[in-house]
Amino acid sequence: MSTPALELNGLKKSFGKAEIIRGIDLSIGKAERHAIIGPNGAGKSTLFNLITARFAPTAGTVKLHGENLAGLEPFQINRKGLSRSFQITNIFPAMTVFENVRCALLWSQGYKYSFWHLVNKKRDLTEGADAILDKINLLERRNLPAGTLSYAEQRALEIGITIAGGADVIMLDEPTAGMSNTETDYITDLILKVTEGKTLIMVEHDMSVVFGLADRISVLVYGEILATGKPAEVRADAKVQEAYLGAALEAEH
Amino acid sequence: MTNKDPRTDIPKGAKPSEQIMTDPSKASERMRAGSMTLTLVPWVVAAVLLAILPQLFTNNSALTIMNQMSITIVFALAYNMLLGQGGMLSFGHAVYAGVGGFACMHIMNMSDFFASIPLVILPVFGGLFGMGLAMIVGSFSTRSAGTVFAMISLGVGELIAACSVIIVAFFGGEEGVSGDRTYAQPFFGVEFLQQEEVYYLTAAWVIISAALMYLWSRTPVGRMANAVRDNPERAEFLGYSSRWVRYYSFVASGFFAGVAGGLFAINYEILTEENLNTASSGVILLVTFLGGVGFFFGPIIGAIAFTLLQTVLSLSTELWAFYAGSLFLATVMFFPGGLAGLIMMHVPAFKLGKAGKLVMPYIKTLLPGAIGILGLAALVEMTFHYRHAATGDDEMTIFWTTFDSHSLMPWIIAGALTLIGLGIARATAPALKDAWSEANSAGGAS
To answer: Which of A4, B31, B164, B294 is the most buried (most CB within 10 A)?
Structure first.
């Protein structure tokens, strides 16, 4: 097979004496939809933060398309085609919805730190941002301050911002957290639509979302990967049943 | 900026969205297209106003005040590139204006070189020196915003102000550096001997600088300055280094602060330590905040209001700084959006066509309130006179009334005015509040 989109080797992270991530090896192929599940405190968000260089790993490597990301800043990793959302909604609340998306387009459209272009005069930016807004069904909200949107709309906007730059590896941290069933279905469809042909890595608690979306699933327990495989395999895994899934699936029903 | 903007035909471009492009978004297109023409209007008005002001206020002191205002406007707008647009609170921004100004003074004193350039371009040199200093300081101060940035700005401000007595060759020690602007190459025959000629030079620079700073806020790096201000972490995950975005804002702000310094040099022909020190840095923070950091035009209003306070009020009372301080406190506590915020607060009521309903309630509350505040000011002035006037000098004049500050009657009158004025204002406040919510609600009685 070709180079995996994302490859983790012996990834470890300690905070003081507490070992949160205890050696993770994981390979995620191109255009794969990969879900990471596990109980609270298993280190899922920490793992996300290690991959995106929000935290520096204690040991191990992260490779994006075969390239080692060690020592890179978040913005440099983003420029290499990895984009992420956050567990707690992370948008620009004072700006309009349109402006949020337009900001997300600036770098990838090559404007960089330009002070010789006027953003209002750039059709590629306006049209690009409107196309994204259309995709996430927020076109009618485009001129409202992002902070005034409903929670589900803000989450949709965050997904829009995350995909706007055209990154081919998308990481979503609990995209449906705190949503009603209808909202969850809506966001799930949205994720399917906007990550078409892209690599998706998501942390998710809602098992129906996970089993509906993911090509493969990794179960993270106490900083280690207990099992990785197709949804059916993971569901049947005895260790997983015992450690996590049994309880989680029971809670669903 | 031109009107022929291609944005009116956006719906055509955004093909996939055609089906769901309903009326609301079309209306918004119209609004945005309209706002382009609207954005030009204030600039034209400002330019015309600047051009005719000397005809309305002809004496030299009025020209001096207007020049002072113009310089403060450029400086405050530059400062707001940091504070309002970039979210960086600087306690030492006077050094960039000051260093720009000192550089211009030295150029004035290089007789051969100065004689070969027209005076009108001198502020560019001020800008370049301010920018150069900002490039050096910014390289370490913009690593983070918040407290660290504020502390570094304070430290650097103190450091450079202290240099004024150490590096005498550049800062001129306690006397400062002085020069003569008229040695420059005449500009179309104008030698800038007259105050009015200097006024037009300054006014032209205000328009140019303000327009450039406004355009800056519309560029990718200017938009990202807002993004980094609101959420640096998210900006990083959009491919932008927060630090570099802050750095570019800082450098640009240093340039325009330096331009303000250059204008100061041309107007006053002398720069001293006072142009660099922390007090000057504090004043520009006050001016900017008073005007309102949330709107581009806020600092302009702040600069005009503050300069008026400083010049006009200081003619009539020694305590003008006390009143300026009180106003600043009131701004921070009661209307953090500043004067610009106060103005913009009324836009919804105007759009609903209900602003007229506010006039009477405003008069009922604000008029007694103003009387109460004036009464309070009278008490403050009388206390000041009572404590500080020479023995035997019992006579004082306020509000065109002369009386004996040691007799009881004036105190009773001022005290009564204060209590009654503020009392009525307080009693009518609930009615004003009701009128306000009524004027800002879309529905209701028409």
So the answer is: B164
Coil, strand or helix at B319: coil
Q: Would you call A172 helix, strand, or coil by DSSP?
A: strand
Give residue B31's pLDDT band: very low, low, confident or very high (50, 70, 90): very low
Polymer length of chain A = 253
Q: Report d(CA A154, CA A158) in Å as an integer.
A: 6
CATH 1.10.3470 boundaries in chain B: 38-321
The first and second tokens of residue A215, run together, are: 């090509």
- B82 φ, ψ (degrees, to nearest 5): -85, -60
Burial B202-213 (b: 16+ CB within 10 A, else e): bbbbbeebbeeb
Percent of chain A with pLDDT over 90: 56
A93 to chain B, any CB pair closer than 8 A? The answer is yes
Give the tens place of pLDDT for each residue, B119-151: 999 999 999 999 999 999 999 999 988 899 999
How many Cβ atoms are within 10 Å of B291's Cβ, its own excluded?
A: 30
- For residue A2, the tally of other CB atoms under 10 A from its CB is 8
ipTM: 0.89
- pLDDT score of B302 more than 50: yes
Asked if residue B2 has pLDDT above 60, the reply is no
Q: Does A111 touch chain B (CB under 8 A)?
A: yes
Q: DSSP states of B73-104 as a string? A: HHHHHHHHHHHHHH----S-THHHHHHHHHHH
pLDDT above 90 coverage of chain B, percent = 54
Which of B265, B306, B267, B269 lies closest to B286 in space, CA to CA?
B306
By three-state DSSP, how is residue B134 classified? helix
Total Cβ atoms within 10 A of residue B248:
22
B90: closest CA of chain A, how far (Å): 22
DSSP designation for B333: H
pLDDT of residue B289: 94
- Write down the residue that tokens 């471009």 correspond to: B13
Q: Nearest Cα to B81, choosing from B115, B130, B122, B39?
A: B130
Tokens representing residue B268 in the block: 């006053």
- Which are the contacts of A2, defined by CB distance < 8 A and separation ≥ 6? A30
B192 sits in the region (left: phi over 0; alpha: psi -120 to 50; else beta) called left
CA distance B61 to B70: 14
pLDDT tens track for A126-153:
999 999 999 899 999 989 999 999 998 9
Q: Is A191 helix (H, G, I), strand (E, B) or coil?
A: helix
Residues B164, B272: Cα–Cα separation, whole Å: 8
Of B10, B219, B235, the CB nearest to A119: B219
Q: Which of B215, B231, B237 sits opposite A118 (nearest CB)?
A: B215
Indicate yes or no: CB of A103 within 8 angstroms of CB of B224. Answer: yes
CA–CA gap between residue A171 and residue A193 (Å, rounded): 15
Residue whose C-alpha is closest to residue B95's, from B60, B142, B63, B132: B132
pLDDT at site B22? 36
What's the predicted TM-score (pTM) here?
0.87
The pLDDT score that the predictor gives to residue A242 is 79
| CATH class label, B38-321 | mainly alpha
Percent of all residues in chain A with a pLDDT value above 70, rounded to a whole number: 96
- Closest approach of chain B CAs to the CA of A250, in angstroms? 36
3-class DSSP state of B270: strand
Beta strand A169-173 with A82-84 is: parallel
